[in-house]
Amino acid sequence: MSRQNETKLNWLQRNLPEGLVVDAGWLEARGYSRALRSKYVARGWLDSVARGAYLRPPARLMASGEEPALHWQNVVISLQTLLERPLVVGGRTALELQGLAHYLGASGPREIHLYGDAPPPAWVGKLGLAASFVFHNAGRLFGNKLITPGEAVIGARLCDWKHDADLRQSGLICETWGHWDWPLVLSTPERAILELLDGVPQRETFHQADVLMEGLHNLSPRRLHELLVACHSVKVKRLFLWFAERHEHAWLKRLDRRGVDLGRGKRMLVRGGRLDAKFHITVPENLDAAG
Q1: Contact residues for 69 (Cβ-Cβ < 8 A; gap 6+)
Q2: FRET label pair with 214: which of 8, 101, 186, 197, CA 20 to 30 Å apart?
Q3: At what angle do helices 189-197 and 234-247 cross, to 10 degrees?
Q4: CA-CA distances (angstroms) from residue 109 to 12, 154, 179, 224, 281?
């Protein structure tokens, strides 16, 4: 191996952590040609996990010859950090990860809900993962810019970025995942439930949303106020307040509703339902019997 190629390999091993994924564009921009990538794959220094996507396999697997196990968290962390894609885990998945969903199976979520300005690259859907990714346009529901770690955090791990004020202001939190405590950005429970309600009744049923809302005993009134003011969806805000009143959550008494625009007119959310006189939305006639 030439000295130049040895230097490139050393750089790659320092800057592409074991278990994370990058695409051909990321490698090409850093001077790794197709021929060099092929050589690294042949030597076992990179693993081609999909067309145009490469994983750096953990050293212990390289030594044993085992196939690297690729989890969806590896992929999302790679997107948020190395590939600098503004995509965060939200909705039902964020609630499941924080222990607030009741339907999570032992094998983990079957769908991973990602929120961002643009969908993940096409190769993400060709990785053969056990779970599939579902993309949602975050700008349609909230106007604030999504905050993700970016590549710089990889070298310094989490540092103080986890407590970034812009992160909290956007209704996002950072949790650590895996052996190396990589940063995984996801929606707070307050933001996640609003994201989930956006899918009622097309993707989420009223009964599913009702069960989830019933268990949300510890939401932050201050954070809820900020998110409800920022939320663009009249339907989501009315639904949220309707469910909150239905379950008589204690935090509801401390929720400041000033500046929360509930719009005008009626919203038909379910055919054959009843019209709620306060929030002017149609809801199931007997939600308790819907399960």
Answers
A1: none
A2: 186
A3: 110
A4: 32, 26, 20, 26, 30
Q: Using CA atoms, how far apart are residues 8 and 2, in angstroms rounded to an integer?
A: 10
**What whole-number distance in Å separates Cα of residue 3 and Cα of residue 103?**
54
Non-local (6+) Cβ contacts of 71 within 8 A are 129
How do residues 40-99 score in pLDDT, each as one tens digit? 999 999 999 999 999 999 876 544 555 557 899 999 999 999 999 999 999 999 999 999
> pLDDT, tens digit, for every residue of 99-124?
998 654 445 578 999 999 999 999 99
Residue with tokens 């094998």: 107
As given in the structure block, the two tokens for residue 235 are: 């339907």
Q: Is 206 helix (H, G, I), strand (E, B) or coil?
A: helix
* Nearest-angstrom CA–CA distance, 273 and 282: 6
